[in-house]
Amino acid sequence: EVCVISVMTSSAVHREAESHLSSDTDLEDPDGKNAKTGKGTAAKKGKKATGDKAKGGAAWRAPGLGRVNGHYQENGMENMTLFEVVKMGKSATQSVVDDWIEAYKNNRDHALLDLINFFIQCSGCKGVCVGEMFRHMQNSEIIRKMTEEFDEDSGDYPFTMSGPQWKKFRISFCDFIAVLVRQCQYSIIYDEYMMDTVISLLTGLSDSQVRAFRHTSTLAAMKLMTALVNVALNLSINMDNTQRQYDAERNKVVAKRASDKLELLLQKRKEVRRNTLCLYCNSEVLFVLADAIAEIRASCIEEIGVWMKLYSDAFLNDSYLKYVGWTMHDKQGEVRLKCLGALQSLFHSRELGARLELFTSRFKDRIVSMTLDKEYDVAVQAIKLLTLVLQCSDEVLTAEDCESVYHLVYSAHRPIAVSAGEFLYKKLFSHQGPEDEGLPRRGRQSLNGSLIKTTVFFFLESELHEHGAYLVDSLWECGSELLKDWETMISLLLDEPAPGEEALTDRQETALVEIMLCVIRQACECHPPVGRGTGKRVLSAKEKKTQLDDRTRITEMFAVALPLLLSKYCVDIDKVTNLLQIPKYFDLDIYTTGRLEKHLDALLRQIWEVQDKHTDTEVLEACSTTYHSLCNEEFTIFNRVNITRSQLLDELVDKFNRLLEDFLQEGGEPDEDDSYQVLATLKKISAFHNAHDLSKWDLFNGNYRLLNTGLQNGDMPEQIVIHAMQCTHYIILWHLAKVSEGSSLKGDMVTLRKQMRAFFLMCQRYLNSINNAVKEQAFTILCDLLLIFSHQIMSSGREQLEPLVYTPDSSLQAEMLNFILDQVFIDQDDDNNSTDGQPDDEASKIEDLHKRRNLLASYCKLIIYNVVEINTGADIFKQYMRYYNDYGDIIKETLSKTRQIDKVQCAKTLGLSLQMLFNEMLSELGFNVDRSTSAFCGIKELSRRFSLTFGLDQMKTREAIAMLHKDGIEFAFKEPSPQGPGSPPLNLAFLDILSEFSSKLIRQDKRTVHMYLERFMTVQMALQREDCWLPLISYRNSLQAGGDDDTMSVMSGISSRGSTRSKKSKQATASKRKLPEAEENSCSSSDAVWMNREPNAQTPLMMHSPHLTSTVLRDPKKMRPEDSYTAAFAMPTEQHPHQPAPLQQHTQVTWMLTQRQQAEARQQQERVSVQYAKMRNHIRRGSGLMEDDEEPIVEDVMMSSEDRLEDINEGMDFDTMDIDLPASKNRRERTELKPDFFDPSSIMDDSVLNVSMF
């Protein structure tokens, strides 16, 4: 529904004029000299604008552009309408408007008719308004006539059409309207005819049901209104200027007063009043604020914003602001965005912002809530609007309003975070009072010192201490100069506070050190933190120079200050960890060029002291990383640092060997002090071995002895075992790196192979440890090493590493899988206590979940990279539904990657996972399966989810889906019923689960699967209709769906035996039954290919059933590759122990079928007619596929090995199913249908023949 609001342009202008002039002193500049804004000088008499007399039109006219009989001609070649000229572009706009004004003066009806047709053509309407219609019809009748001729389905709407000539059509359209009003502003718009006609037309079109009419008319009306606002503004300015001149002249003494000038002003008074009234009466414009189209609403709001900014005296009032406020609740983000843009243009001016106090108080809450808008662009503009509001007045936004914006500096969306950072900077850091003017520029007592403290306070109050990098990135664009004042930061950390100054607390100093590190990282790396950027962008030359300058400043400052900071905070873990990361951003050349070697020595001493005092892993790894950054062979300081590092490692290794000997020689339980010493030394060696090659110290034997002793005694502290395994892991990796580079000795590969295999066995033994932390460490290392030493180690030309390939045996795979099932797939309630017995809080639960996700991801990598068997993933895939919230994304990605490796094996694994769940359900609920239980429904839902993962392209997954059905059928009939013969097999309900995958089978494969299913069925099974047999019935029905077309083709040949087609079919049968052996083999060759990939598979059988095969000759040369899939269902020769003996005499089958039909004949008599009617309807629906056949095709069917079809036919009354099909045409030439190379006997079911085929 369209809500139309009418606005009078000159009503506002008139009210504004009334406030300046009395009723007899309205003044105007009709001559046009003061057309520009701000020009107030009276015009000389007799001067006319170019638009009025069109004398200047030739100057604006495009070359060769003239007017012929109301149309525009270019180079004299063709007549062009206004629409065609505007479509040409901006260059012809000025001249065409001048020509139109000239035509209007000569014949205004003809000119207005051109303008009306212009608006109609711009709407995409092919209709034309002729002169007769314009003279004798109302606007509503004209619009109705155009609506009847409008074709909305054509898509020929100029504003949305593609192509180079339409890209700028909207701009040209708007320019045309603006130029038209500007050129007519001195006389034509006051004639009470042109504006009345145009506005009346646009008013009618804006209320049309045709979307294009509404959009075009609304846009035209908005631009027309904007142009009139410009005219009104110029008029207001000229009125003010002339009024001042008039007052000045009247205030002169009589002797000096110019009577002729006063007479001229009085003469203009009547003309100004007349023009003002005309503008008041003729400037009615409609705009639509509740149109169904968001673009129309957005255009209205955009133009209202222009009016309020352009002519604030007339439009910046509640009458217009309320529409902007209401539209901020629009459902479309595009409209809300235009509202915010309109308000931003007003708040940019302090004068206009002060006049919006009432509006701000009314709609402030809505603007604040829009900072959390679902559209990111809207949220960004809402924050920017609040920043402008903050600049206009500090008192408008409350503390709660500001806090709702503050936390957005930690947003992952960088534009929102940067906007919030600008708001925060304006609020907290941009205020400078008179007392701050005398402060020093740098240092603790400077203004930046207090601002940096404010930043630290804000960071601590936000309670997001791990997100300092995000805060720095948010403030970087607006406050980088403040953040890069490292001199002040160092002063705040090292200098003593002045008398009366409050010193920073330990917590505040820790936060300051973290912020300082984040600023250094941002300055040197020049890219946002993780999660805020799509990647590293290319830096400009200016940015690169700034980066180099910042890095030089950082090195010069912190090369001197860092040793002092480490000395002061040597025992503080958090501060030291952050401070030790600073050297990796240094420009190490400055140590030499700047003569700073003594500061380097001081830094190395402090690092030695830090590692000596600490045993925390983070601190030790930070020390190791710092040595790695400083030990760069490209710089001259390498020798100095390398010597210090070697001395440190020598001391650590000697101490470890000494302690290890004492530790291992002790009998009984290890001493606590000795254990601590061994653990501390081992943690330091492991931390340094992570970044440095310690191969020359030969640490493998010591660590292996330590691990072996732990297994034998069982009393080794868990942390010693964990770090010993980690250190051994590093030893093997560094050894592998040397062997891969070719820098090792001849026997190193043999040594590595022995060490690697011994360590694999050691970790496998530790998987059975009673300590969870030890088992997790062993499992993680095993996953990493199995990936590293897999078959992929030989890729990229490294075939010489083939002896190092390690393939996990079945026992290792089983133990790793059991670890995953025991440690990962557990409920939260089972893991509600931490290792120390204390209940976990929410944070620890999240951390534990993250750890379990990493363990699962590590194992899934082994499946994806084909390190372990794909079928081991069955135990993981079956957990998909139960643990969907925790691990659903990991399992789904693993499933996707596995399918890319091997589609068939992946499908078999999915089937295996469903079978495992089914067996678990049987073990819990017993043999009597209730398909309404939650357990069964859960398995069925999981199968539906698995089915969806195969996608829509059935040809790509054809073989995989067929294999899944084959395995499922074999599983369903694998175990006989524990209740004895006559009862359904134990796993028969599994067919109901398997039916979820039937929709993924193509039509040909459904028949083949159905044939394979029939081979497992006995005669009694086919005749059963009890509830316990419903899974079999529903599964058969799911396989029979989709083959109706070929069913009708076969049945038409059978049922019309008295017709000519019947005779032809019998002759064909006689000839086809005498096929040579070679042709028979070629016909059945497709049945022996892709299931024979498992020649040794033992398929359980319930009973061999006679099956029907087609006798229609198939050309093997025309068979498609995918048609060879039929062989997937080749039956093995061995028989299941529980399989009943097959029937030996076919006459028994015939007799049983005949008896069955006779017994049910009376009950079926009433249903025959109903089935017949349904069948005829179904045939008529399916006959459309055969409309193009030229000759009827009859396909007779026969028994596969004996000519027993007539025996079966004796018990069938085909006359009751006389199916009459229309003649088919040229079926063999129908290339869009896949040829049927499968046995059509599977589609002859009970619903067609009224008897069972078994």
TrEMBL record:
<dbReference type="GO" id="GO:0000775">
    <property type="term" value="C:chromosome, centromeric region"/>
</dbReference>
<comment type="subunit">
    <text>Part of the cohesin complex which is composed of a heterodimer between a SMC1 protein (SMC1A or SMC1B) and SMC3, which are attached via their hinge domain, and RAD21 which link them at their heads, and one STAG protein.</text>
</comment>
<dbReference type="GO" id="GO:0007062">
    <property type="term" value="P:sister chromatid cohesion"/>
</dbReference>
<keyword id="KW-0131">Cell cycle</keyword>
<dbReference type="GO" id="GO:0007059">
    <property type="term" value="P:chromosome segregation"/>
</dbReference>
<dbReference type="Pfam" id="PF24571">
    <property type="entry name" value="HEAT_SCC3-SA"/>
</dbReference>
<dbReference type="GO" id="GO:0000785">
    <property type="term" value="C:chromatin"/>
</dbReference>
<dbReference type="GO" id="GO:0005634">
    <property type="term" value="C:nucleus"/>
</dbReference>
<feature type="coiled-coil region">
    <location>
        <begin position="232"/>
        <end position="275"/>
    </location>
</feature>
<dbReference type="Pfam" id="PF21581">
    <property type="entry name" value="SCD"/>
</dbReference>
<keyword id="KW-0132">Cell division</keyword>
<comment type="function">
    <text>Component of cohesin complex, a complex required for the cohesion of sister chromatids after DNA replication. The cohesin complex apparently forms a large proteinaceous ring within which sister chromatids can be trapped. At anaphase, the complex is cleaved and dissociates from chromatin, allowing sister chromatids to segregate.</text>
</comment>
<dbReference type="InterPro" id="IPR016024">
    <property type="entry name" value="ARM-type_fold"/>
</dbReference>
<dbReference type="Pfam" id="PF08514">
    <property type="entry name" value="STAG"/>
</dbReference>
<dbReference type="GO" id="GO:0008278">
    <property type="term" value="C:cohesin complex"/>
</dbReference>
<feature type="region of interest" description="Disordered">
    <location>
        <begin position="14"/>
        <end position="60"/>
    </location>
</feature>
<dbReference type="InterPro" id="IPR020839">
    <property type="entry name" value="SCD"/>
</dbReference>
<dbReference type="InterPro" id="IPR039662">
    <property type="entry name" value="Cohesin_Scc3/SA"/>
</dbReference>
<protein>
    <recommendedName>
        <fullName>Cohesin subunit SA</fullName>
    </recommendedName>
</protein>
<keyword id="KW-0158">Chromosome</keyword>
<dbReference type="GO" id="GO:0051301">
    <property type="term" value="P:cell division"/>
</dbReference>
<feature type="compositionally biased region" description="Basic and acidic residues">
    <location>
        <begin position="14"/>
        <end position="23"/>
    </location>
</feature>
<comment type="similarity">
    <text>Belongs to the SCC3 family.</text>
</comment>
<keyword id="KW-0539">Nucleus</keyword>
<feature type="domain" description="SCD">
    <location>
        <begin position="285"/>
        <end position="370"/>
    </location>
</feature>
<keyword id="KW-0159">Chromosome partition</keyword>
<dbReference type="InterPro" id="IPR011989">
    <property type="entry name" value="ARM-like"/>
</dbReference>
<dbReference type="InterPro" id="IPR056396">
    <property type="entry name" value="HEAT_SCC3-SA"/>
</dbReference>
<feature type="region of interest" description="Disordered">
    <location>
        <begin position="1042"/>
        <end position="1089"/>
    </location>
</feature>
<keyword id="KW-0175">Coiled coil</keyword>
<dbReference type="InterPro" id="IPR013721">
    <property type="entry name" value="STAG"/>
</dbReference>
<dbReference type="GO" id="GO:0003682">
    <property type="term" value="F:chromatin binding"/>
</dbReference>
